[in-house]
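Researcher: Quick test of sequence recovery. Tokens follow.
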């Protein structure tokens, strides 16, 4: 049960989206064994960089060699491998700073604007290797993260 000022909610399951240590502090005293376990779960920082390239189409939607499904040029240096895709993850053995790239234009086409065709991507950087790759999360330079995200799109 979750008791709020104006109601009580009864649930079979609770899904938490806060860091484990923060959840540990929110639990009641009788849940101390669980709170103790939660405090031992490490958290990792992730930088999320959203990119948009106008006048190009994503290689996963290519219908003609060298041209995207809207007739726009493909992203430079990228070869299409599949007809569709949500995105891809990158193993840390290949690139420890890069977690993966979500093809927002494919995954969420309803968010495309009415203007000229464009590609929207979300690049996820860091994770367990954030400090090693970018330094302290609070001090990570946005320009460095942007450059690294753009490089990830070119290389992966």
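Model:
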């Amino acid at each position: 049960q979750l008791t709020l000022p104006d109601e009580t909610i009864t649930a079979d399951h609770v899904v938490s989206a806060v860091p484990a240590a923060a959840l540990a502090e929110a639990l009641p005293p009788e849940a101390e064994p669980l709170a103790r376990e939660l405090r031992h779960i490490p958290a990792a920082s992730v930088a999320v960089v959203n990119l948009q390239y106008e006048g190009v189409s994503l290689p996963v939607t290519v219908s003609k060699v060298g041209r995207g499904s809207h007739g726009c040029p493909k992203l430079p240096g990228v070869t299409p491998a599949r007809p569709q895709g949500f995105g891809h993850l990158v193993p840390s053995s290949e690139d420890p700073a890069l977690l993966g790239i979500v093809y927002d234009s494919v995954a969420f086409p309803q968010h495309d604007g009415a203007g000229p065709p464009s590609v929207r991507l979300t690049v996820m950087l860091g994770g367990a290797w954030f400090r090693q790759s970018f330094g302290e999360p609070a001090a990570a330079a946005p320009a460095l993260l942007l450059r690294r995200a753009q490089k990830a799109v070119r290389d992966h």
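Residues 45-155 form one domain.
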